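User: Show me sequence and structure for the first protein, then do the same for the second.

Assistant: Starting with the first protein.
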Amino acid sequence: MLDIQHPDNPLVEFPIERAKYYNAICDDIDKHQSDIALMSEWGQDAAEQMKITIDSEGLGSVYADADSDNTGITAGKDSGIYDMGVAGNPVSITKENVIDILMDMTACLDEQNVPESNRWYALASWVCNLIKKSEIKDVSMTGDSRSVSRHGRIGSIDNNPILKSNQIHRVVDGITGNNAYYNMAGHKDAITFASQITKTETLQSERTFGRLIRGLNVHDYKVIKGQGLVTAYSDKA
């Protein structure tokens, strides 16, 4: 007789303690004298600025919860041979070594037995720029019909989609004096994100002639599997 397993599916509980809002007014005079839909334009811009703020906040903290075997100059749970950089000694990225560093980041995930599906990279914009200048600009390296230098899209490397962000957390390294960035690789199960309330509304102002446009987003995030998150403390050589 086969033994029956009862897989665990534990719930993750954490308080939702973060909120962002915008609150702007469009005066009637501005509305009537403008030939564009100001309320719509402002609402779209406010939502985009809120997204940037939330991304910056999240990327500015989750990197610190990566498993200790996935950071530092001896990263790799089994081998300890991968240099992910450390304060005072960031790993310097060039167009010649950027692909190698990304491979090392996924190797750290391999040594943690993280599933190969649903992995990702979250990289600073300048790192993505170096990728476009690297060896994969040669179409024969990627198997694509056109090189990344022509279509401008990086897509995936090592079957992991690349998320480009200008909000990757950065600091000024105390030793080198250069900007250092916490570039990451991970698995979708490493971080959980909750957005409880998202609301946008317009209403008549009680204090002036005009209409208010405002929005609210209540959210929070938490690293629940640090072994599924790799942080490379890196700078541009």
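Switching to the second protein now.
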Amino acid sequence: MKKLLFAAVVATLALAPTALGKELQSVSVCGPEGCNSSDGGGAAGAGGGGGGTGGAAFAEFRAAFEGDTDTAGAPRTVLDAVPVGSYYRLGVLVRGDYPPAGHFSVEMWYVKPNLIRFLRSGDRVEPFKRLGPAASSLLERLASDLKPYPAPKVVGAIVNGKRAAHPAEYIGLFGGLKTTDVSLASTSRWVDLGVTPDRANPWFTADMQFLYMPDDQALFFDKPVKVGYDLASTIARDGGLPMPPKPDGRAWGRPVGIGVFALWLVVATGLFLLWRRPRRPREQPTPA
């Protein structure tokens, strides 16, 4: 089922039922070439367990799973856009659970240095969460010698029911666009915008649709963000929409250039005419 991303904020992280009321056994950070795991909160090598003083880190993870905002270091919801980049898979194993090989009790994404997100196709959409210092430190140690997944690419895009000719340009939607002050009113004109990634990632899935308001050049994530002129023009072209107005810098840039050229032409013409003007012969002295 397609999901529409409105400005409504979901304040708690999506929970796996097995995580509630049970002991966390390990936390793992995975890249395309393997995983590093920790038991009891201490960082260990790939596939290994290790001791450590990670009780505080596990407490912060439990606060994330249980929606607890009172625990010291509890994760905080991030509503501003997070720039696309490299990332890791994050897995938490709950004691007593026996997930299939290569899977975990709870699976999320991890973006350095301290962001996690639960995002899977077909699941409810949750915003990024910023971890506390203990959990962040644990994940950074686990990821220190792991190769991350590269930043995702957009391989397909549909705007207003029309397929985009050059979908790769739409990765600019996830470049950390700035928040804009606009609301989705009943009279607002908006279109659906969907993008398909080349691989699973923390920012978007193939079954997500975003609301785009062409009149305001606003795209709705957890907060509405302002789409720049170039990308807004691409959206308008692909979706059969009116082109956005040019920003001030572009609106007068060409007339100013024309004015400078005209001034130069007037000066050059004047100099040319001055040079071509007939010269009066010099008077010769009268012989004595």
